Every structure is written in structure tokens, then in C-alpha cells.
Automatic annotation (TrEMBL):
Domain ABC transporter: 12-242
GO cellular component: membrane protein complex; plasma membrane
Coiled-coil regions, chain positions: none
Name of the featured protein: Putative ABC transport system ATP-binding protein
Length: 242
């Protein structure tokens, strides 16, 4: 039995999660009684309009923010009450972030940008370079490793951002509007790459307001006024507790 077969099916479990903020003396219920399970190998889209709570849910899933009440289990560990130092370690090792605006450093080459999370992880220089080149090769950009972001197209920059998220092989890729800053043709190419990575076994969570993007996922979770509901996706149907 190989390592992949030994992995538990469940990767994320969120139970009765609530997130509240104080704004102008009022309490805002950003997330209300969210329960959701995400399995290894899922391609899940969370779709909702501006103000629906999808960014708050993304921040909780990405360990950038914690819930007010409820629990969040990530890869077998209850993370909702951990200290920031431990959360930072989890973000670095278990979550690869893909941002709408790429968030690449212009002074660094593609290779150096991809190496960044590995530097924070303390990976030795030789291994770091090998891993970063392997990640760039996975997105078809190893030949552009010495180019800086301003020497790359928008689609190539997003591929570098995806390679950076892949570096270190985290179990989760969390993509926030990954095609939002791209033209239609390039967006199609990036989504094709994302689906290919999912087919290779990567668990991917897409945050989007675009129905055409969400419909390409295996699962679709809609969020409105901080509450979720789930419908079938493009490849297979699962149900979330709501």
C-alpha cells in the first residue's frame, strides 16, 4: 500500500462554525453555523457575491483568521484555537495560496519567487532550487525560471504563482479568484492547469464569484449571508452538512 492509499479520506472538517465582527457597535454575523467536509482529492468551488462571507470563509480555511465559535479540523489537527506561531507553520506546510493578482515580487526571478515558501520552511539551498524547478516544470515554465514577473505575461505570472503554491507539496491549494485578473483565453488555460493538478491528486479549493468557473469544479458550495448550501459539481456530487 502506497502513501496516498494510507491517507485518510477526510482532509478538512468544519463543524458549526460561526464568525462575528463588531462594526460600529453592531455585531456582524459573517459566517453562521457553517459545517463542511472536504476530502483528499476534491476540487471544490465556493461561490458567492461580494459580502456573502466567502472571503471570511477563505481566511478561516487558510488559517489566516479563526472562528468565533465552532471547530475546524485540518489534516487531523484541530486548528481553530491554535496560537499564531503554530498557524503560520501550518500555512507554510499545508496550504499553498494562489492569489488573483499573483502577489509575485518584481525584483525576484520566477525561480526565486517559487523558492520563497521553501526559504521560510528552512529547506537547504540546493534542495530548495531543485524543488522550485520541479514546481515550475509542473506548470510548464521551467524554461522561464530566470525571468522576472515584468518579463512574463499575465498567464505566465499566474503559473508562477501556482508553482509557488505547489512548492513543498502542501496537501491543499487555496485559490482566490485565480482567473480574475486574466483575459478569457488565459483564464481558460489556467483553469485547465488547475483541473490537471486536481487530476494528479491535489486538493484544490476555489473561491470565486464566477459561475462559469465554479461549474468546472467537482463540488460547488454556495454562500449567501454567511450560510452555505451545496449542489452537484461538474464531475461528482457530495453533500455538505448545512
Amino acid at each position: 500500500m502506497n502513501a496516498a492509499q494510507k491517507q485518510p479520506t477526510e482532509l478538512i472538517r468544519i463543524e458549526q462554525l460561526n464568525k462575528q465582527y463588531k462594526m460600529g457597535g453592531e455585531i456582524v454575523h459573517a459566517l453562521s453555523d457553517i459545517s463542511l467536509t472536504i476530502n483528499h482529492g476534491d476540487l471544490l468551488a465556493i461561490i458567492g457575491p461580494s459580502g456573502s462571507g466567502k472571503s471570511t470563509l477563505m481566511n478561516v480555511i487558510g488559517c489566516l483568521d479563526g472562528p468565533t465559535t465552532g471547530s475546524y479540523w485540518l489534516d487531523g489537527e484541530e486548528v481553530s484555537r491554535l496560537r499564531e506561531s503554530r498557524l503560520a507553520e501550518i500555512r507554510n506546510r499545508k496550504i499553498g495560496f494562489i492569489f488573483q493578482n499573483f502577489n509575485l515580487l518584481n525584483k525576484l526571478t520566477a525561480l526565486e519567487n517559487v523558492e520563497l515558501p521553501l526559504i521560510y520552511r528552512g529547506v537547504p539551498a540546493k534542495q530548495r532550487k531543485e524543488d522550485a524547478l520541479a514546481a515550475l516544470a509542473k506548470v510548464g515554465l521551467d524554461s522561464r525560471s530566470g525571468h522576472r514577473p515584468n518579463e512574463l505575461s499575465g498567464g505566465q505570472q499566474q503559473r508562477v504563482a501556482i508553482a509557488r503554491a505547489l512548492a513543498g507539496n502542501p496537501p491543499i491549494l487555496l485559490a482566490d479568484e485565480p482567473t480574475g485578473a486574466l483575459d478569457t483565453k488565459t483564464g481558460v488555460e489556467v483553469m485547465r492547469l488547475i483541473k490537471e493538478l486536481n487530476a494528479q491528486g491535489h486538493t484544490i479549493i476555489l473561491i470565486t464569484h464566477d459561475l462559469s468557473i465554479a461549474e468546472q469544479a467537482g463540488r460547488v458550495v454556495r454562500i449567501q449571508d454567511g450560510r452555505i448550501s451545496e449542489e452537484g459539481g461538474g464531475r461528482r456530487e457530495h453533500r455538505a452538512s448545512v
